[in-house]
Fold this sequence. Notes:
By secondary structure, this protein is mainly alpha-helical. The protein has helices at 2-34, 52-64, 67-71, 106-115, 129-132, 137-149, 164-171, 197-205, 209-212, 240-249, 265-268, 273-283; strands spanning 78-82, 86-90, 161-162.
Amino acid sequence: MKKILKWTGVSLLGLVIVLVSGGIALSSIGSSKANKTYEVTESLLTTVPEDSASLAYGEHLSKIHGCQSCHTENLGGKVFVDAPPFRAVAANLTSGKGGIAQSYSIQDWDRAIRYGIKPDGTAEFLMPSKTLHNLSDADAGALIAYMRSVAPVDNELPATELRTLGKILTAAGEFDAAAETHTVANREPAPPAGITTEYGKYLSSITCTHCHGANMEGGVPLGPDAPAPPPLVPAGTWTIEMFIKSMRTGVTPANHEMNPEMMPWEAFKHMTDEELQAIHLYLQTL
């Protein structure tokens, strides 16, 4: 009996050693993946407009892209996830104490917004660059100009941290901090603003295609418990009044209330009627 207990103990100890060793190895692999560096292989913006119209339009872009949802209304930042896998921090974007604007160059802003890459070359954590990547140079310039102009907010925050469990999940392919990192552009100059199919297609590329797919035929779930984003093609059959009302209220013509965490209508409600009309016109062509 003693021998059986002894060998059982030895076996359990061996299993623990294997599990611990495996966890350490996976954690090391995950850490290496998370710390991988990327380099933008094309020209970044070096100048941005400073006129009041551009700053106002940049603020408009910040609202329709929901920058305030993560970085707070005054863009002072916050910790928005603090869980065993990781702590995710939306940075203080201002020039106040703890803010990144104190040190960010225009190129740093462009690299972070449209490419999802930090000044040190590592990936931005949970930054929606897959959508922002399609911003035209003019629109990116206006957005950066606005970000550089906001009032300073003193808010020193802890750093984003990928913890041991997060590193293991990263190594196992269950999580990828660099999923929205880009090194080259795939965009063209934006067409003139107006109620046109072309402008509607551009607006869709910087707001809708990230979730609903390039052709608006539906996307993949954004998380293990999240529903798949539905096709947007049917929305082209709604009247323009129905479409605008849905974007303003979060309620579809069938009285379905859209979950703002899955469908960010609270950001899209800031779009002008003309912008929504252009998107609706584009949806009608699909």
